[in-house]
What does this fold into?
Amino acid sequence: MDSKDELDFGAERQYLEKRIATFSAVDEIQENLIEIRYTLGEKRSYYATQNARAIALKNEIIALEASHKELAKEHENKEASYRENVQKLKKKVRIAIPGTSADEQRISVQKTTELEAREKLAEENLALARNKEPVVECQKLLETKKGAYHNILEDQKPLKQTIEDLEKQIITLEKEHEDAIQQWREMWHESNKRAITDGEVERNLSKSYEDIIRDLKEENAALNATIEAHQEREKSDQEKLKTKDNEIWGLKRLSEKADERLNTKRADITALKEEIFKIHDFKRLAPLVWAGLQIRNRVIELEKKSPNPTLLDRGEEACHLGMAQADAALYRPYCPQARTDVETYKSLYGVDPQWVWDNRESKRLLDILDWRASMKFFHVRSLSILPFETTPFHKEWAAVMKGKEKFSARNFDKFLGEDHAGVSKYDDMKRWYNIHLEKYKKKSGGQV
It folds into this structure.
């Protein structure tokens, strides 16, 4: 091998090594990108979880601060009131001077003893009012929550910085990956050009002039034979085409008649579809129709001398208690006089009517939504000054519904019917509902 061949071989080897190195760099950068993107996804997920915890703690802190202020104010008012009572009683004791007669002295002594006892009781109440233990406990809990909130914020700072660094790394690696792929493509095109050029040169050098001329004549003869065969097929196809045109004309006449019959059938099908849609709409509104039937049955039943108490109770329940599915049907577009005030429904049931309709297959979900509306009705009728959201039932209901907006009907039935915690909460809410229902029935004379 002479020096020129050695130089060509060395250059070719360097070129191949460069191609291999470029391909390896592309593969390595791609693997790094996959790993960093996966890490970034985990960090973002953890950051979102911590952020949700921080928001929840902040809301708790706001609520505790309001409770702390309310407790402190209530404590100050009680202490001031008891202190004023003590001062008034002390003044009454001082001015209770015995009279001159024995009866007056005896009455005065009794009044003084009674005032002293009342003064002692007022001082005991004042001592109890000065006990700031509830305020202190609330303050301690508030400080604990603030500390936890501060710790989460401090933990989020390095995590946020890590996320930003990973995003910068991804941008840099994507640029490197793009540059490496571009370099690999350029080398690949250059390799193809070199392979084609070298092959053509080798074939041309191995053939003589006479061989090339002979090959070209053979190719020309084969091409002429192909053209003649194509022309013969074209003539045959034209004759077949005329026959097909006649057949097509006959088929068009048949198609026109078929179209006329088809249009008639389509009109019949459209009328049937309209009837089917009406039937389907009626089925979709079945819960609402059932509620209306119970109410009107009650009206008719009241005309009897001995009305059926079961029918009366059903009518009362349909009129006053919660029926989440039936009320959600009022917001469907095919419902006559469909409602659009979604916020009113959410105020009563705590969720969107569309979400209730999508998950109406869950019997237990509809139960707890019905109970919520009914419990709110009982709460309003009890004339309580406390908000409905502070009741134990609503707290339990809110705990069950928290984070469940993405649940399906099947998941709700599984959670409330099979999960131990879900079954326990379901039973607690059912028990509270039955207790308040019986209380309300007794208060209203045995009816809802």
Observations:
- Residues 3-95 form the longest helix (93 residues).
- The mean pLDDT is 78.
- DSSP finds 13 helices and no strands in the chain.
